[in-house]
Amino acid sequence: MSENDAVAVVSGGMDSTTMLHYLVKKQGLHPALITFAYGQRHAREIDSARAQAAILGLDVPMLFDLTPFQAAFAASALTDASREIPDASEVAGDPQPATYVPFRNLIFLTLAAAYAESHGASAVYYGAQRHDLYGYWDTTPDFLTRVNHVYALNRKSAISIEAPFVNYSKADILRLGFEMGVDYAQTWSCYHGGTVACGTCPTCAERLKAFAEVGVADPLPYATN
């Protein structure tokens, strides 16, 4: 890896998938890819990340297995099967919904930054976006600014954290993805995992809202259809 290469954190969802196509097709980058297993109920998203890497001719994402540390994320409905994943209507206006995973993005970005520094990369990209129906503090412009202030303290190999879609809505991201020919049938969003998307959890609701706003049918099958 040369010092001009980047590292991209990919999950297999709409946002990071579109970001990955953007980095390759619009920015001309050939990033190293990292994905994470942290005990998430929707771990099938990792398969989508691998599929998108193959589509773009990139190496298989390096899997960071954090499941031995799953206790650190136990407060989230995404990792604790005994907790009910709420519908989108239940999280509206909640500053810290049950689907929030404690410090997830900060942990992911720290590991990605360490990997980048060890391999001569100077930038880490992740797919933060402006949530319309709910949101997390570690996807905000304020978080991005502050985390970059911390990583800039590195005395020799400062790593910048880049979130090209941090001010984009889901529909904005979708429009860009269609422009680039992204196959959204090869992505996964639903927090429940399973074989079909639930259609009612926060991320399904936001995804369906974006497709409706753009005027295109979502290619994923939904239990509510």
Structure description:
It is built from seven helices and five strands; from the N terminus they run βαβαβααβαβαα. The chain is an alpha/beta fold and 225 residues long. It has a single domain, classed as Rossmann fold, CATH 3.40.50. Strand 4, helix 5 and strand 5 form a beta-alpha-beta unit. The longest helix has 15 residues. The chain is globular, with a radius of gyration of 17 Å.
Descriptive labels:
7 helices, alpha/beta, 5-stranded parallel β-sheet, 225 residues, Rossmann fold
- Rg estimate, integer Å: 17 Å
- In the CATH scheme, the class would be Alpha Beta
Helix content: 25-40%
CATH topology: Rossmann fold
Q: Total domains, how many?
A: 1
Poorly predicted tracts of residues: none
User: What is the CATH architecture term?
Assistant: 3-Layer(aba) Sandwich
Secondary-structure element pattern, one letter each? EHEHEHHEHEHH
Largest sheet: spatial strand order:
3-2-1-4-5
Q: How confident overall, as mean pLDDT?
A: 94
- Sheet of most strands: 5 strands, parallel
- Beta percentage is 5-15%
Tell me the span between the first and last alpha carbons.
Answer: 45 Å
Principal-axis shape equals: globular
Class based on secondary structure composition and strand pairing: alpha/beta
Fourth CATH level, the homologous superfamily = HUPs
